[in-house]
Write a structure and sequence with these properties.
The complex is a heterodimer of chains A (259) and B (248). Chain A is α+β, with helices and mostly antiparallel strands and 259 residues long. Chain A has helices at 37-42, 102-117, 141-151, 235-255; strands at residues 16-26, 48-52, 57-64, 68-74, 80-86, 125-138, 167-170, 173-174, 183-201, 204-225. Chain A has one domain (13-27, 52-194, 209-255). Chain B contains 10 helices and 4 strands. Chain B folds into 2 domains: 20-97, no CATH class; 106-247, Leucine-rich Repeat Variant (Alpha Horseshoe). The chains are: A alpha+beta (259), B mainly alpha (248).
């Protein structure tokens, strides 16, 4: 079946953000000096900060636009990640927590990254990744598979007699940037989720019960430059490449699994 | 065939923070706030221990009261009311599916594989330098878990969980492997471990860097040499830096 046949896909604006991240693998051998990064990128101090000096891990957190929670993490290898997830709701939530439409969140998120790239201590990189976990709420299980079928063109799904589908694929592409021979992995993982809301009285755990159920198509996108690239991305390259990675993510949310 | 989907890490994946935790200065465990939801077998009562379960456990650290409800039900809550202390109600979201076999968290799988590799030989054999089984185990971890496995190994070098001599030999194998995809990750690991509190481990990292042969390590080796208190190791670090400089 070609990508142009089958049911139409819902508009991109229907996809809600459960997680959005930018992962930067610094060029090996550089010092990682993260003390001012939050201030440089966000403009204030984080709400929380923790460091683990022995392994040089770091984590900072604070609020982000649209009801999101922003975190900056550095792992023991010096890999850096900026990430937005939903804030914990103030009351029992009616719907699945999300930060809002992916296409609306990506703009301020890229803006934050660009402010960080201009920081004098922002490291050059050898690998970059833009990740999104997005949800598309649907009415029920069957509707979920029917909707998923509009994104997974190579797959024939019986929506009423199929369960627990997990579809993962990488569709690499050549980068349109000026960087010679750079390839980009486009890894996507698709499922339909049944999500139950459980609530109860704190004093009596036995009172807990399912008070609502929701269904959603979910896709986890990991758009990244290949690990075998041996060059170095300058901050200018990095800015342009993240825009390209974001566009590729949006294309998948719009068209589904296409070569 | 029993396939543990959650422990499969595609070689193109970059999600190296999925299971990271950071310990605060006063000992409290602080974590990233991931919002992936927990999984629960729809037709079974077996609570799964997926990535989300690990995240659930981390979320639990925010609220003991949430834990009480969760443990009673055998569920790992992931998103729940943080203000449980201010409200008699607790709540959380769970995923449901038809899976009945508990899956280990990806974190646990990686940790288990690494510890298997690092403890596969008696220490006295390691000291004799016959370390091929260790090398095979380390190569397998790098191949299967990529940057995530390397990150876990970096964390282990900062603890006393593994004998320093074993770690030192493991780091030499890290430098010896022929695998382009993990080259930069291995280089990052070896450079980071130059700051290990153990002289033996620092020595292993320097030898690993020589084996890896990247001029990108020269600056880090020179810096490590200038900070090195052990005279013998300082000379080795300087020699390693000189050797890699000549190769560039």
């Amino acid at each position: 079946m070609s990508a142009t046949q089958g049911p139409p896909t819902p508009p991109v604006s229907s996809w809600l953000t459960q997680l959005m991240r930018a992962t930067v693998f610094p060029t090996p051998g550089q010092p990682i000096t993260a003390d001012t990064w939050w201030t440089d990128a966000v403009g204030g101090e984080p709400e929380t900060r923790s460091v683990k000096p022995a392994t040089r891990q770091r984590q900072e957190e604070g609020p982000f636009e649209g009801g999101g929670r922003l975190s900056l993490s550095i792992n023991p290898l010096g890999v850096i990640q900026w990430q937005v997830t939903p804030e914990v709701p103030k009351d029992i939530p009616v719907d699945i927590p999300a930060v809002g439409p992916v296409e609306e969140l990506s703009k301020p998120f890229l803006g934050l990254l660009n402010r960080w790239f201009r920081s004098t201590t922002c490291p050059t990189a050898s690998r970059l990744a833009f990740g999104v976990t997005a949800l598309l709420p649907v009415e029920d299980h069957a509707r979920g598979y029917e909707t998923l079928a509009s994104y997974l063109h190579a797959l024939k799904i019986d929506p009423h007699n199929s369960f627990d589908l997990l579809y993962r694929i990488n569709r690499p592409r050549r980068s349109i940037s000026e960087i010679q021979e750079l390839r980009i992995n486009r890894l996507s993982t698709w499922v339909v989720q049944k999500i139950s809301m459980v609530a109860g009285m704190e004093s009596d755990p036995r009172s807990s019960s399912v008070i609502s159920e929701r269904y959603a198509c979910a896709v986890e996108l990991d758009i990244n430059t290949v690990p075998t690239f041996t060059g170095t991305f300058t901050s200018r390259d990095t800015s342009a490449l993240f825009s390209e990675l974001e566009r590729l993510a949006m294309e998948i949310l719009a068209k589904g699994d296409v070569p | 065939m029993n396939v543990n989907v959650n422990s499969l890490i595609p070689s193109s994946s970059t999600d190296v923070f999925k299971s990271d935790t950071v310990v605060g200065s006063s000992g409290e465990v602080l974590t990233r706030s991931d919002t992936k939801l927990a999984s629960l077998g729809e037709a079974s009562t077996s609570a799964t221990t997926t990535d989300a379960a690990t995240q659930g456990e981390r979320s639990v650290s925010r609220s003991i009261r949430g834990l009480v409800v969760a443990l009673y039900l055998g569920l790992p809550p992931v998103i729940y009311d943080e203000r449980a202390h201010a409200s008699p109600r607790s709540w959380y979201w769970v995923h449901t599916n038809n899976q009945t076999a508990p899956e280990p968290a990806r974190d646990e799988v990686v940790q288990h594989a690494l510890m298997n590799a690092l403890t596969c030989m008696p220490t006295d054999e390691i000291q004799d330098g016959m370390t091929l089984p260790l090398g095979i185990g380390i190569a397998s971890c790098v191949k299967d878990f990529g940057e995530l496995g390397l990150g876990k190994l970096a964390s282990l070098t900062a603890t006393a969980a593994v004998d320093a001599e074993v770690l030192s030999h493991a780091l030499r194998w890290i430098g010896r492997l022929e695998d382009n995809e993990s080259f930069h990750g291995r280089l990052r690991l070896l450079i980071r471990v130059l700051a290990s509190p153990s002289t033996t481990v620092r020595d292993g990292a320097a030898l690993g860097l020589v084996e890896l042969g990247s001029p990108l390590a020269v600056r880090a080796l020179e810096e490590a040499a200038s900070n090195e208190a052990n005279e013998s190791l300082r000379e080795d670090l300087e020699q390693a830096a000189n050797y890699l400089s000549r190769r560039s």
